[in-house]
Specification:
Layout (H helix, E strand, L loop, with lengths): L5 H23 L7 H17 L23 E3 L9 E2 L2 H15 L5 E8 L2 E8 L2 E7 L5 E3 L2 H5 L19 E9 L2 H14 L7 H9 L4 H5 L4 E11 L7 H10 L9 E4 H15 L7 E8 L2 H7 L1 E2 L2 E2 L2 E5 L4 E13 L5 E12 L2 E7 L3 H7 L6 E5 L7 E5 L24 E2 L8 E2 L6 H12 L11 H9 L6 H4 L4 H5 L6 H14 L4 H7 L7 H11 L2 H10 L26 H12 L1 H12 L19 E5 L7 H10 L3 E3 L8 E4 L5 H9 L2 E3 L1 H7 L3
Parallel strand pairs: 2-13, 21-22, 21-23, 23-24
Antiparallel strand pairs: 1-6, 3-9, 3-10, 4-5, 4-7, 7-8, 10-13, 11-12, 14-15, 14-17, 15-16, 17-18, 19-20
Helix pairs in contact: 1-2, 3-9, 12-13, 17-18
The structure holds 2-(butylsulfanyl)adenosine.
The site of 2-(butylsulfanyl)adenosine has 15 residues, from strand 3, strand 8 and strand 13.
Amino acid sequence: MAADMTAPVQRAAELRRVLEQHNHRYYVLDDPSIPDAEYDLLFRELQALEEQHPELRTPDSPTQRVGGAALKEFAPVLHRLPMQSLNNCFSEEELDEFDRRVREGLGLEAVTYVAEPKLDGLAVSLSYENGVFVQGATRGDGETGEDITANLRTIRALPLALHPAQGQAKPRLLEVRGEVYLPRAGFDRMNAEAAARGDKLYVNPRNAAAGSLRQLDPKMTAARPLALYVYGVGFQQGWTAPRTHAQVLQQLRAWGFPVSPLIEVVQGAAGCLDYYQRMQARRTSLGFDIDGVVYKLDDLAGREELGSVSRAPRWAIAHKFPAEEALTVVENIEFQISRTGALNPVARLRPVFVGGANVSNATLHNLDEVERKDVRIGDTVIVRRAGDVIPEVKGVILERRPEDARKPVVPSHCPVCGAQVERAEGDVNARCSNGMSCPAQLQGALQHFVSRRAMDIEGLGEKLLAQLIERGLVHSPVDIFQLTAEQLAGLERMGEKSAENVVAAIGKSKDSRFERFLYALGIPDVGESTARDLARHFGTLEALIEATQRDPLTETSEAIKPKDRYPELRKVPDVGPIVAAHLCHFFAEPRNREVITALLKAGIRWPPPKTSAGGVLSGKTLVITGTLPRLSREEAGALIEAHGGKVSGSISAKTDYLLAGESAGSKLAKAEKLGVAVIDLAGLRALIGE
Ligand code: IVH
């Protein structure tokens, strides 16, 4: 029976096209247009068709992204045009030098450059024959790389076929050059998973990306959240290339390749420097690592004219950021008492210049980390200082460990108050057992209690608190509310006026909110967002305390698996067994309950819970896009839901509002086209009456 094949052939082609279009929208444009479940249905339909008619299984089929057998080794690939490297510069002077050489070489007064982020990943070359992805390779030594086609296919942002360009034939051969990288969130996830398995951690996203790309089994690569940006074309045949690099990038975008939206056309060395400074300022908030920027001559004919020296083009240069990591020696490991009594390990270092500053102290986070990384006094370690983040010890260079390297000794007694140090089973820290009777803990707890996002008491800073503790005027947060202007005015650097201001600020802080109060209590691991979730879930302090009493303390019980412990508290999103255990312990402690009662008696209060059912946004659907000022998308989503609204991932005519932040893209355009109301964060706050 000769089945009619036209229908399956057409359907398979249609499914391939639609699925790849959705992949592109999801992974390249970051703008999905159908729910995941619908995508899965189409995907399974194509899989079934190909199962029935194996001859329909083309190399550019989305079903072929993950598949194929594991390899024994990677085959060598000769690059048709060598993959060059870039010369570096580290200063404004060197940048000016570069620009002068380019201008003199071309005999021009001023030059247009394209400025790009320098991604810290791995260079790859992607070959397309008649518009279909056929081979991908690593850079290797620049002449010969390794064939990693199967692994590259698993990267969803990589187009398996070029999107048809209007009125243009597909190039017979096209080598696209770009960088595979691992976004920081994916890196953190990989390391969290490695830690859970007890495996070694990856040092940085670049190494993790390299390891992922060089897996012999593509299924392993597929499980890694790799991403891709392309930045140029190598060899090509049958394509009339445009005249400028900016136009090349534009064409690559149109073909469906991911091209960084951070790329800009700039004028002269001054434009380059301005770009460098703006990128450096944004560096830590990009979500992926860049180690500098790259300037490239925009005019392609000019590039030919300038040529290359020793495998690096004369028409481009990388302007590197100061290194964020450096090696130095651990001279000592000390312990500082935190507000929750944790003995926080701090490495005292031989001073080293890193991330643009001299660093002599670095955090080791907690005891668990010290043990896991096995950091010893005398060790040579990698220190990282990125942006304004506290410098940290990332790892030990074991090869350089001297024979007399010593493991740090955890003190048996608190170095501040002398009380017994204890370590509970499963706790990553050892803790001083003295609670608020330990001056270090009291100081830390009070600083947290009065901080802006907690009780927000203005004018009550670190130094003033230290004086109050030293003079015995304050033994707990409750005492703050009994302070008088006379008492304060007697302290160093305190006039009558400022004393009165502080008393007024204390009075004002009594009008609080449940989640702020909860956060202010300083329960271990209960940060702002957990406090908000708890407040939203339980509504009242009484309900929360009651839940902690219904959940028996089971964290050490062998009979109950961690995931089954604390069922009541675990109903709250993101509350796991550790946070739940902290909550139960905190509220079971009579002293803590006394403090809370006294604080409420002192006049701290908050408005009763709002019920979301009658919220102003009930029945409304909102979509969020772009970067919002000060609020993550999750937080904005929670805010909307707290007022009864629904958050959706894609815009349709049924959407009521588009909440748009900075650099909103295609969703904004679509909203405008559909006539959906567009609001910013201030608009949302106005809607919900905040
Ligand atoms: S262009 C001929 N552009 O930096 C120029 N490279 O040392 C070839 N890289 O191996 C490279 N971001 O891995 C170029 N926007 C960018 C880049 C970039 C990262 C890497 C690439 C290359 C190395 C050059």
